[in-house]
Structure formats: structure tokens, C-alpha cells
């Protein structure tokens, strides 16, 4: 790939920095290329990506240009690529660059970035909500992940399956020094999402919490954060092939989903969970998997005052939770809550768990050219933990 120096080194701080921080793994000459490598959704509606060259953008007012080195692959990317989330307002367009767990190095500042804590050379992250307005009611309420004017990375905005991306200097997430970039990436969506969901469950140390989909990208982090970070007694539910991973991540018990019927609205699996929790059921269930069956199974697993926290979003037509009947909700005082992606403070806090060595994301790295295969494996439920794309 041809690369150029975008100006004289002495002209400004940004250009000086371009000389100091290689744009990719190429050694010399060093600079920001006019074009860079990106994976685009070439046939939205199907599982397909292709790697192409796209123009490297210039940072606008208040923006930084980030040379991405890593991007996690999230199930939400799959939903965007395949147009299978009915909740999204518009179909994905061909040529969309997906991805929303990006980590890289700031290589250039746009105008209006002087005096910010974020400097050229800093590692920063890009989240699902890549930019917010800062002035709408959710933003003012500390729920910036719900910003009414938020920009979604990888859906109608260029995402992180590419080597360069823009981000707002006041909303990119600083990455702590001791956290390797490939481990930081999954924290920016999966990690912050499940951390926020665990907080929302109001489970206290010592409480039983069921993680549905405990071996997946979100679930394995929920299991680690819950058990090692928050002192919860985690019961992991997933396919039997993931038992070892789930237990290694700190689950006290593992429930093999394949050993229970799918068509009894959770009656059998709930009885089993009760046997593991002193007969009462779990204090909370966090459904990380995008499965309507998992949601139907969750409510019967709850004890009195228990709460179901919805995280995974099933694809296809929107289906009500089969067991969410007013009777049991009233008699057991159950609550059902949704939890989105957390706010910027949650992102700082969850990265700190990694920095302190309390949790360690289970990561496998792959090259950008393998992205389609990664999605195919994801579709078959064959991924353990998180796949992170190495963009160098
Ligand atoms: Zn995500
Ligand atoms: Zn806002």
C-alpha cells in the first residue's frame, strides 16, 4: 500500500506525531496513508464481507484520527450485516464498514482539540455508540449510551473493521496502559454491556446470578466480572461444549442447555436451577444470548424479588417473552429490565477490572481477511469467548 507524509514534520503537533507513531506495521516511510484497508459488507442481508481500500478521512472539529490495531467482532455486527434486527430503522447499505469494538492509537487531532486529556500517541477505544450529542435528556441523565442523537459505529457510520477511523476527542475511551489492545477491544462493547447489566440486576455479593449464554463473547465476560469482580455466585448456562470455559471463567455451576427440553417454557431447567440455589431460584438472570427460548426459560428460574435483565437481542421478528405473565410477576415481585451498552463511566470502570488483573477476556485474534469465516462460525454458535481482528 502506498503511503505518504501528509505535511512537514515541523508544521504542527499532529504531523510530528505521525512520524512517531507508525500508521500500520510498515516500517518506513511512516505516515498516514491516503487510503487504507477496510472490510465492508458487500452483500447486506447475507453473511459476506470483502476487504477493500477506502479513503482515509481527515479529522474534523473536535475529532481525532485513530490508527486502529484491533477490533472485536460482536454479534450485533452480525445482526447489522444480515439485516436481521427488525428493531433497526433502516437496512444496511452495501459498502458499510462494520465493527464497534475498536482500539488504536490517536495519530492526528482535528481543530478544536487543544487542551484535551487525549493526546496524539494515546491508545483509545471506539464503542457501539461512537459519538453522542452531550445535550439531550439521556446524555444529561448519565445515560449517554442512550443518546437520542448518538452515532452507531458500523451502522450508517464507518465502523472499526478498518485501519483508520474518526472519533470525537471527548467520547473516545482512553485505554489503561497495562491493558493489551486485543484485550481492551472486547471490553468496549461486550464488557461494558454486561457490566452495566450486572449493575442493573441489583444483585449483591453472594447472590446467585444465572448467565444465559455464559460461554459467548458477552457471557464469558459477565461470568468473570460477576464472580471475580462483584462477588456473585454465577451459574453459567450454555452448550455443553463450553462447560470448561465457563467454569474457568469463575462459574460455580454449569448447566448444559442441551440436556433440557426447549419447548416446556423453561420448566425443567428452572427446576434444576432451583436445586442449585437452595430451592428458591436465582436472584437474577442475565440473558446474553440472542435466543427467544433463553428468555422464556429465564423467568421461571427467578426467586422472589428476582430480576431478568435482557441483553441479547434475538434476530428476526420481535417475539414477546413467553413466560412474562402478570401472575408470576406479581406473586413473586419479579422485574424485567433491558440494559443497553452502559455509559462512559461504565466503560472506564470495566477496563479497570482488566488493568487490575481481576478479569481477562478470552480472545482469539484473526486477520481482517478471515472476517467472513468468523461470522460463519458465530452463526453456528462455534465461537468461544471473543474473536478480535488484528488490523495491522
Ligand atoms: Zn457489540
Ligand atoms: Zn445525547
TrEMBL record:
<dbReference type="Pfam" id="PF00107">
    <property type="entry name" value="ADH_zinc_N"/>
</dbReference>
<dbReference type="GO" id="GO:0004022">
    <property type="term" value="F:alcohol dehydrogenase (NAD+) activity"/>
</dbReference>
<keyword id="KW-0479">Metal-binding</keyword>
<protein>
    <recommendedName>
        <fullName>Enoyl reductase (ER) domain-containing protein</fullName>
    </recommendedName>
</protein>
<dbReference type="InterPro" id="IPR013154">
    <property type="entry name" value="ADH-like_N"/>
</dbReference>
<dbReference type="GO" id="GO:0008270">
    <property type="term" value="F:zinc ion binding"/>
</dbReference>
<keyword id="KW-0520">NAD</keyword>
<keyword id="KW-0862">Zinc</keyword>
<feature type="domain" description="Enoyl reductase (ER)">
    <location>
        <begin position="45"/>
        <end position="389"/>
    </location>
</feature>
<dbReference type="InterPro" id="IPR013149">
    <property type="entry name" value="ADH-like_C"/>
</dbReference>
<dbReference type="InterPro" id="IPR002328">
    <property type="entry name" value="ADH_Zn_CS"/>
</dbReference>
<dbReference type="InterPro" id="IPR020843">
    <property type="entry name" value="ER"/>
</dbReference>
<comment type="similarity">
    <text>Belongs to the zinc-containing alcohol dehydrogenase family.</text>
</comment>
<keyword id="KW-0560">Oxidoreductase</keyword>
<dbReference type="GO" id="GO:0005737">
    <property type="term" value="C:cytoplasm"/>
</dbReference>
<dbReference type="InterPro" id="IPR011032">
    <property type="entry name" value="GroES-like_sf"/>
</dbReference>
<dbReference type="Pfam" id="PF08240">
    <property type="entry name" value="ADH_N"/>
</dbReference>
<dbReference type="InterPro" id="IPR036291">
    <property type="entry name" value="NAD(P)-bd_dom_sf"/>
</dbReference>
